[in-house]
Specification:
Blueprint lengths: L1 E10 L6 H9 L27 H4 L4 H14 L7 E4 L5 H12 L6 H5 L5 H10 L5 E4 L5 H14 L5 E7 L17 E19 L9 H11 L3 E6 L2 E7 L3
Parallel strand pairs: 2-3, 2-4
Antiparallel strand pairs: 1-5, 4-5, 5-7, 6-7
Helix pairs in contact: 1-8
Length: 246
């Protein structure tokens, strides 16, 4: 797969600008206050989505806010833009709140349910932007980033002039802590991909050590540090990223 990373944006609590991420990439560490969340008390750190009307903002969960914050500015130059949204865990706080209500025999909110499904973010994106482009929501494993790139490159190969790829994960509620250990802190990364030969992504089937950080964060470290190559392993899959130096 060949492509160009035209632009990128990322957000995590306390990390908003490219300079913030460059500083973090030099000494990556878990962020202060990145403790497990509860459905009733989401993190106080929230990305800015003031570009949306207040009625629309109220429909966005913290996960959707992160996705919109990083992706919206990259889409501004395009009227219609295909979108690939990737999240392994999705709306865990919202889902837990629904399950808790169900366990208590309380009435379930149809709105809450509709906003908890995995494609809710791309549905809201399509409605709020008035964009009817092809959009996909993926629930990949730890290599969801690469699965998203594969989907995006397929759209580029079909003639799309650009594709927006968004990877977002929210720190899970405390109840899920024993089962979800791959989200060190809430984060979202958006890549604007266009046709080109700047980057190449290859897949081999071989065993290797799992990455210390989520793949999207490791890619940010490479972009901030000017790396020309990196590898990501997950199970028997080895993903090799390489940048054309020419």
């Amino acid at each position: 797969m060949h492509f160009r990373i035209e632009q990128w944006r990322a957000w995590a609590p306390g990390l908003e600008s490219a300079d913030d991420w460059r500083l973090w990439s030099h000494a990556p560490a878990r962020l202060p206050g990145a403790a497990e969340q509860s459905p009733a008390q989401p993190s106080a750190a929230q990305p800015d989505v003031s570009f949306l009307p207040a009625m629309q903002r109220r429909r966005l969960s913290p996960l959707a806010r992160m996705a919109f914050h990083v992706a919206w500015p990259l889409a501004e130059a395009y009227g219609q833009l295909p979108l690939v949204f990737v999240s392994r865990h999705g709306e865990t706080p919202r889902t837990l709140a629904i399950i808790t209500d169900l366990a208590k025999d309380e009435a379930l909110s149809p709105t809450q349910f509709s906003l908890s499904v995995h494609n809710a973010v791309i549905g809201l994106w399509s409605i709020m932007r008035g964009d009817t482009s092809e959009m996909t929501a993926l629930a990949g494993e730890n290599d969801g980033l690469e699965q998203g790139v594969l989907e995006a490159c397929t759209l580029l190969g079909e003639g799309a002039p650009a594709v927006l790829l968004v990877v977002a994960e929210e720190r899970p509620p405390a109840l899920y802590a024993p089962y979800i250990d791959d989200v060190p802190f809430s984060h979202a990364v958006a890549l604007l991909l266009t046709p080109g030969d700047d980057w190449q992504l290859q897949l081999r089937h071989t065993d290797g050590p799992a990455a210390e950080w989520p793949h999207a964060l490791n890619l940010l470290r490479a972009l901030c540090g000017g790396q020309d190559s990196l590898q990501h392993h997950w199970k028997s899959r080895q993903w090799s990223w390489s940048r054309n130096k020419a």
